[in-house]
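Human: I'm a chemist; would you kindly supply sequence and C-alpha coordinates for a protein?

Assistant:
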Amino acid sequence: MTWLDNQVALVTGGGSGLGRAVVRRYLEEGAQVAVLDLDRERLDELEAEFDDIVTVQGDVTSLADNERGVSTAVDAFGHLDVFVGNAGVFDDNISLPELDLDDVDSNFAELFEVNVLGYLLGARTALPELVKTEGRMVFTASQASFHSDGGGILYVPSKHAIAGIVRQLAFELAPTVRVNGVAPGYVPTDLSTTDSLGGERGIVSPEEFEAANHPLNIVPQPEDYTGAYVLLASPANSRPMTGTIIRADLGRSVRGITSVAGRATEFVTDGLDPSQ
Protein backbone atom coordinates (compact mmCIF):
# COMPACT_ATOMS: atom_id res chain seq x y z
CA MET A 1 0.00 0.00 0.00
CA THR A 2 1.23 3.47 -0.89
CA TRP A 3 0.24 6.77 0.71
CA LEU A 4 -0.47 8.92 -2.36
CA ASP A 5 -2.48 6.68 -4.66
CA ASN A 6 -4.68 8.67 -7.05
CA GLN A 7 -3.18 11.96 -5.86
CA VAL A 8 -1.91 14.64 -8.24
CA ALA A 9 0.81 17.02 -7.04
CA LEU A 10 2.47 20.12 -8.46
CA VAL A 11 6.02 20.69 -7.17
CA THR A 12 7.93 23.92 -7.81
CA GLY A 13 11.69 23.74 -7.95
CA GLY A 14 11.44 19.99 -8.51
CA GLY A 15 14.33 19.70 -10.94
CA SER A 16 17.12 19.20 -8.43
CA GLY A 17 18.07 18.67 -4.81
CA LEU A 18 15.31 18.44 -2.24
CA GLY A 19 12.58 19.16 -4.80
CA ARG A 20 13.74 16.32 -7.04
CA ALA A 21 13.84 13.95 -4.06
CA VAL A 22 10.25 14.92 -3.20
CA VAL A 23 9.16 14.31 -6.80
CA ARG A 24 10.79 10.87 -6.80
CA ARG A 25 9.24 9.92 -3.45
CA TYR A 26 5.77 11.11 -4.47
CA LEU A 27 5.95 8.96 -7.60
CA GLU A 28 7.06 5.97 -5.53
CA GLU A 29 4.06 6.58 -3.26
CA GLY A 30 1.64 6.39 -6.18
CA ALA A 31 1.16 10.05 -7.08
CA GLN A 32 1.14 11.69 -10.49
CA VAL A 33 3.36 14.75 -10.49
CA ALA A 34 3.74 18.02 -12.40
CA VAL A 35 7.01 19.92 -11.95
CA LEU A 36 7.62 23.64 -12.47
CA ASP A 37 11.30 24.52 -12.72
CA LEU A 38 13.57 26.99 -14.53
CA ASP A 39 16.04 24.41 -15.84
CA ARG A 40 14.84 22.72 -19.05
CA GLU A 41 17.68 20.20 -19.05
CA ARG A 42 16.76 18.92 -15.60
CA LEU A 43 13.11 18.71 -16.55
CA ASP A 44 14.03 16.64 -19.61
CA GLU A 45 15.98 14.29 -17.33
CA LEU A 46 12.92 13.86 -15.10
CA GLU A 47 10.68 13.07 -18.05
CA ALA A 48 13.17 10.54 -19.35
CA GLU A 49 13.51 8.86 -15.95
CA PHE A 50 9.89 8.72 -14.77
CA ASP A 51 6.40 7.95 -15.98
CA ASP A 52 3.35 9.72 -14.51
CA ILE A 53 5.12 13.07 -14.73
CA VAL A 54 4.69 16.28 -16.75
CA THR A 55 6.96 19.30 -16.63
CA VAL A 56 6.76 23.03 -17.20
CA GLN A 57 9.77 25.27 -17.69
CA GLY A 58 8.95 28.48 -15.90
CA ASP A 59 9.69 31.07 -13.25
CA VAL A 60 7.82 30.97 -9.95
CA THR A 61 7.82 34.78 -9.85
CA SER A 62 5.65 34.80 -13.00
CA LEU A 63 1.88 34.57 -12.56
CA ALA A 64 1.53 33.18 -16.09
CA ASP A 65 4.09 30.44 -15.46
CA ASN A 66 2.37 29.41 -12.24
CA GLU A 67 -0.93 29.28 -14.09
CA ARG A 68 0.69 27.09 -16.75
CA GLY A 69 1.96 24.76 -14.04
CA VAL A 70 -1.52 24.30 -12.61
CA SER A 71 -3.24 23.93 -15.98
CA THR A 72 -0.63 21.45 -17.18
CA ALA A 73 -1.19 19.27 -14.12
CA VAL A 74 -4.97 19.38 -14.48
CA ASP A 75 -4.93 18.83 -18.25
CA ALA A 76 -2.63 15.82 -17.88
CA PHE A 77 -4.15 14.17 -14.83
CA GLY A 78 -7.65 15.58 -14.42
CA HIS A 79 -7.35 17.32 -11.06
CA LEU A 80 -4.91 18.72 -8.49
CA ASP A 81 -4.69 17.53 -4.89
CA VAL A 82 -1.35 18.87 -3.61
CA PHE A 83 0.67 22.02 -4.21
CA VAL A 84 4.28 21.91 -2.99
CA GLY A 85 5.96 25.33 -2.84
CA ASN A 86 9.65 24.51 -2.83
CA ALA A 87 11.61 26.72 -5.26
CA GLY A 88 14.05 29.05 -3.55
CA VAL A 89 17.30 30.98 -3.78
CA PHE A 90 20.02 31.75 -1.25
CA ASP A 91 21.94 34.86 -0.19
CA ASP A 92 25.34 33.21 0.36
CA ASN A 93 25.18 34.06 4.08
CA ILE A 94 25.63 37.77 3.41
CA SER A 95 25.48 40.04 6.47
CA LEU A 96 24.00 43.54 6.63
CA PRO A 97 27.37 45.37 6.62
CA GLU A 98 28.40 43.37 3.54
CA LEU A 99 25.42 44.59 1.48
CA ASP A 100 26.32 47.32 -0.99
CA LEU A 101 24.14 50.32 -0.17
CA ASP A 102 23.45 50.91 -3.86
CA ASP A 103 22.16 47.35 -4.32
CA VAL A 104 20.19 46.65 -1.13
CA ASP A 105 16.82 47.22 -2.80
CA SER A 106 17.58 44.98 -5.79
CA ASN A 107 19.13 42.28 -3.57
CA PHE A 108 16.05 42.29 -1.35
CA ALA A 109 13.52 42.38 -4.18
CA GLU A 110 15.04 39.50 -6.13
CA LEU A 111 15.36 37.13 -3.19
CA PHE A 112 11.95 37.90 -1.70
CA GLU A 113 10.28 37.63 -5.11
CA VAL A 114 11.45 34.03 -5.45
CA ASN A 115 11.28 32.87 -1.82
CA VAL A 116 8.09 34.62 -0.76
CA LEU A 117 6.14 35.98 -3.74
CA GLY A 118 6.79 32.74 -5.63
CA TYR A 119 5.06 30.79 -2.87
CA LEU A 120 2.10 33.16 -2.80
CA LEU A 121 1.63 33.09 -6.58
CA GLY A 122 1.82 29.30 -6.62
CA ALA A 123 -0.66 29.00 -3.77
CA ARG A 124 -3.07 31.49 -5.33
CA THR A 125 -3.08 29.85 -8.74
CA ALA A 126 -3.42 26.34 -7.28
CA LEU A 127 -6.18 27.32 -4.85
CA PRO A 128 -9.26 26.97 -7.09
CA GLU A 129 -8.27 23.40 -8.01
CA LEU A 130 -7.39 22.51 -4.42
CA VAL A 131 -10.77 23.75 -3.23
CA LYS A 132 -12.43 21.31 -5.65
CA THR A 133 -10.48 18.36 -4.22
CA GLU A 134 -10.22 19.60 -0.60
CA GLY A 135 -6.50 19.37 -1.16
CA ARG A 136 -3.32 20.29 0.62
CA MET A 137 -0.51 22.83 0.39
CA VAL A 138 2.98 21.91 1.59
CA PHE A 139 5.68 24.57 1.78
CA THR A 140 9.42 24.18 2.21
CA ALA A 141 10.32 26.30 5.20
CA SER A 142 13.71 25.95 6.91
CA GLN A 143 15.41 25.81 10.26
CA ALA A 144 16.05 29.46 9.28
CA SER A 145 12.30 30.01 9.70
CA PHE A 146 12.90 29.77 13.46
CA HIS A 147 16.58 30.57 14.07
CA SER A 148 19.27 33.03 13.06
CA ASP A 149 22.48 31.95 11.32
CA GLY A 150 20.72 29.67 8.83
CA GLY A 151 21.67 32.08 6.07
CA GLY A 152 22.22 35.81 5.81
CA ILE A 153 20.22 38.97 6.42
CA LEU A 154 18.00 38.37 3.36
CA TYR A 155 17.48 34.61 3.36
CA VAL A 156 16.64 34.22 7.06
CA PRO A 157 13.85 36.86 7.04
CA SER A 158 12.46 35.34 3.84
CA LYS A 159 12.22 31.94 5.52
CA HIS A 160 10.64 33.50 8.61
CA ALA A 161 8.03 34.85 6.17
CA ILE A 162 7.30 31.30 4.99
CA ALA A 163 6.30 30.34 8.53
CA GLY A 164 3.87 33.26 8.47
CA ILE A 165 2.47 32.17 5.11
CA VAL A 166 1.82 28.64 6.40
CA ARG A 167 0.02 29.88 9.50
CA GLN A 168 -2.00 32.60 7.80
CA LEU A 169 -3.12 30.40 4.90
CA ALA A 170 -4.01 27.61 7.31
CA PHE A 171 -6.21 30.13 9.15
CA GLU A 172 -7.78 31.53 5.99
CA LEU A 173 -8.38 28.28 4.09
CA ALA A 174 -9.62 25.98 6.85
CA PRO A 175 -11.46 23.69 6.79
CA THR A 176 -11.36 23.16 3.01
CA VAL A 177 -7.62 23.23 2.25
CA ARG A 178 -4.97 22.14 4.72
CA VAL A 179 -1.71 24.11 4.74
CA ASN A 180 1.49 22.82 6.34
CA GLY A 181 5.23 23.00 5.93
CA VAL A 182 8.52 21.19 6.38
CA ALA A 183 11.50 22.96 7.95
CA PRO A 184 14.64 21.00 7.05
CA GLY A 185 17.99 21.57 8.65
CA TYR A 186 21.02 21.14 6.45
CA VAL A 187 20.24 19.76 2.99
CA PRO A 188 22.97 19.04 0.41
CA THR A 189 20.91 20.65 -2.35
CA ASP A 190 21.74 22.77 -5.37
CA LEU A 191 20.59 26.18 -4.13
CA SER A 192 21.66 29.11 -6.28
CA THR A 193 22.41 32.63 -5.10
CA THR A 194 20.31 35.43 -6.61
CA ASP A 195 21.65 37.06 -9.77
CA SER A 196 22.12 40.36 -7.96
CA LEU A 197 24.43 38.62 -5.46
CA GLY A 198 26.43 36.72 -8.06
CA GLY A 199 24.08 34.03 -9.31
CA GLU A 200 26.33 31.12 -8.45
CA ARG A 201 24.97 27.63 -7.89
CA GLY A 202 26.47 25.67 -5.08
CA ILE A 203 26.05 22.74 -2.78
CA VAL A 204 27.38 22.68 0.76
CA SER A 205 29.18 19.36 0.57
CA PRO A 206 28.89 16.73 3.31
CA GLU A 207 32.60 17.27 4.01
CA GLU A 208 31.91 20.90 4.93
CA PHE A 209 28.98 20.10 7.21
CA GLU A 210 29.80 19.72 10.90
CA ALA A 211 27.44 16.91 11.87
CA ALA A 212 28.78 16.80 15.42
CA ASN A 213 27.44 20.31 16.03
CA HIS A 214 23.90 18.90 15.96
CA PRO A 215 22.39 16.43 18.44
CA LEU A 216 21.66 13.75 15.84
CA ASN A 217 25.27 13.79 14.56
CA ILE A 218 24.30 12.73 11.03
CA VAL A 219 24.86 14.09 7.54
CA PRO A 220 21.38 13.96 5.98
CA GLN A 221 20.57 13.56 2.30
CA PRO A 222 17.60 15.16 0.50
CA GLU A 223 15.80 11.81 0.57
CA ASP A 224 15.85 11.81 4.36
CA TYR A 225 13.36 14.69 4.45
CA THR A 226 10.83 13.34 1.97
CA GLY A 227 8.81 11.34 4.51
CA ALA A 228 7.53 14.57 6.03
CA TYR A 229 6.39 15.77 2.61
CA VAL A 230 4.57 12.48 2.02
CA LEU A 231 2.85 12.69 5.40
CA LEU A 232 1.60 16.22 4.76
CA ALA A 233 0.46 15.38 1.22
CA SER A 234 -1.45 12.28 2.30
CA PRO A 235 -5.21 12.94 2.57
CA ALA A 236 -5.62 10.37 5.33
CA ASN A 237 -2.46 10.79 7.36
CA SER A 238 -2.48 14.61 7.46
CA ARG A 239 -6.18 14.82 8.28
CA PRO A 240 -5.84 16.49 11.73
CA MET A 241 -3.01 18.82 10.66
CA THR A 242 -3.07 22.38 9.40
CA GLY A 243 -0.76 25.27 10.25
CA THR A 244 1.85 22.71 11.25
CA ILE A 245 5.53 23.03 10.35
CA ILE A 246 7.49 19.83 10.83
CA ARG A 247 10.90 20.83 12.14
CA ALA A 248 13.35 18.29 10.76
CA ASP A 249 16.36 20.26 11.96
CA LEU A 250 18.66 17.48 13.23
CA GLY A 251 17.82 18.47 16.79
CA ARG A 252 18.96 22.07 16.56
CA SER A 253 15.72 23.30 18.11
CA VAL A 254 16.40 21.39 21.32
CA ARG A 255 20.05 22.26 21.77
CA GLY A 256 21.23 24.82 19.23
CA ILE A 257 24.54 24.53 17.43
CA THR A 258 28.08 25.59 18.13
CA SER A 259 28.42 28.99 16.46
CA VAL A 260 30.80 31.90 16.20
CA ALA A 261 30.06 35.27 17.80
CA GLY A 262 28.11 37.93 15.95
CA ARG A 263 29.68 38.65 12.59
CA ALA A 264 29.55 42.41 13.10
CA THR A 265 32.62 42.05 15.33
CA GLU A 266 34.65 41.26 12.21
CA PHE A 267 33.94 44.70 10.85
CA VAL A 268 34.92 46.38 14.10
CA THR A 269 38.18 44.43 14.03
CA ASP A 270 38.78 45.56 10.46
CA GLY A 271 38.30 49.17 11.47
CA LEU A 272 34.78 49.37 10.05
CA ASP A 273 31.82 50.61 11.98
CA PRO A 274 28.92 48.18 11.35
CA SER A 275 26.44 50.96 12.12
CA GLN A 276 27.46 52.81 8.96
In short: Helices lie at 17-28, 40-49, 63-77, 104-133, 155-173, 226-233, 252-255, 264-269.
